Every structure is written in C-alpha cells, then in structure tokens.
Amino acid sequence: MSVAQKRSYETLSPRFCIPFTPDAASAPAFFGNENPLTIEIGFGMGIATADIAEANPQKNYLGLEVHTPGIGRLLWEIEKRDLRNIRIIEHDAVEVLEKMTAPGSAAAFHIFFPDPWPKKRHHKRRLVTRPFTDMLAEKLSSGGYLYMVTDWEDYGNQALAELSATPGLVNPHAGSGKSGFAPHQDWRPRTKFEQKGIDKNHEVRELYFIKE
After folding, report:
1. Which of 51, 92, 115, 134 is catalytic?
2. If you ran DSSP here, which 8-state letter would residue 121 be given?
3. Residue 123: which pLDDT band, with cuts at 50, 70 and 90?
4. Which helix (H) or strand (E) segment is 89 a member of?
5. Which residues, in sequence order, are CB contacts of 65 under 8 Å at separation 6+?
C-alpha cells in the first residue's frame, strides 16, 4: 500500500467500511436512505466506482473487495470527492451475497474485469457461472440489471452462455449483430486496466442482462 492508501484505510474505514456479518442486513441502514442500490463485485482500485458514484448521487453503491490497497485507494477517492453514496465490505463476495443481501434488494450488479483464470484447469474458479448467477438473479429487483465486462474472449463467451441459461435474466441484445454481447455503455469510464488489455489487442466484451 502507498502511504496515502494506508492512511485512508486506517482513518476512513470506520466511516465507510461495513463489517461482515452472517445475518441479513438492510441496505438502507448502511446509507440512511432508500435510494436504489448497485453492488459492485471486485472494484479493483475503485476509480471507475468513484466516477460512476460521483455522476449518480441519487444512487447508492456497495463495493465488495478483498484487495486492501484497492480499498485504501477508493477510500482516498471518497474523501477527495466528498462522496456520500459509497460503502465497502472487505469480504468474500459470495458470502456477502449469500448471508447479507436480501432477495430483490439490488437494483444492479457491476462486475468489471473479473479474474479470468485463463488456464483451463482453473476455469472452475471463474465467478460468473451458474449457480452463482442464479443467486445474482435472486438478489436483483424486478427490472434490475447485471452488467459484466471482460477482455478475455473465452470468458466472455462462457459468461454469455451461463447468464443466458440463468432463470429470470433476459438479454435485450440477443440476436444482435455482436451475437448477444451488449454495446459499450457510455456511462462506464475506461480504466487503466482496461486500456492495458486494449493495448494487447484484447477485445472488450460487455454483457448486459435484465431481471424479468
């Protein structure tokens, strides 16, 4: 961790980080309001998270991350920008969703550039597969969306198949010219990590599904 990240982590965690608890929690209690909740799984260094939250003060954002330097960096961004609509849980995302997230409580899920586990023997570790996607659908409210982005072709194809097979999720771009992948969402900022993939000639694939 950098000095700034460490300082932010130590001083701001009590204000913006929510302790994991195995009991179901109410999202409005985290934020003090009833605004729609977006849950981001694995926000990395959190720059895109801060950008999106800053542009949408009428929405709440809950980031799930275990990478401490990234948490420190997002906390630094929260303080610098005076953001009041972000909270963080430093814990495994699967457990948080299983035990702390009520059905129908999330208006959206963001999963930007999850670990692709590129070796074939590690594909079983990939996050966006069933039955995990079934749980995501359960936690989404009616009309809510799931938005995933990856720069790994085979992961994108696998995730598209898994999400398409998930009951309750509908792909509004099925049958489109890009074989079911979504166009770029202009409100999602491009990150340095994404640019590195583009520089390596990785094609970015975007998946956008809606809860029926």
Report:
1. 115
2. G
3. very high
4. strand 86-89
5. 42, 43, 44, 46, 71, 74, 88, 89, 90
pLDDT tens per residue across span 3-44: 989 999 999 999 999 999 988 777 888 999 999 999 999 999
Residue 136 belongs to what H/E stretch? helix 132-139
Please say if 151 is a catalytic residue: no
Which of 133, 33, 132 lies closest to 87, judged by CA? Answer: 33
In this structure, are residues 37 and 105 in contact, taking their beta carbons and an 8 Å threshold?
Answer: yes
List the structure tokens of 184: 């770029």
Is residue 99 exposed (0-12), middle (13-18) or buried (19+ Cβ within 10 Å)? middle
Check: CB of residue 192 under 8 Å from CB of residue 169.
Answer: no
Length of the chain: 212
Give the residue, 142 or 202, on which the prediction is more confident. Answer: 142
pTM: 0.95
Phi, psi of 144 (to 5 degrees): -70, 170
Q: What pLDDT, on a 0 to 100 scale, did the predictor assign at position 177?
A: 60
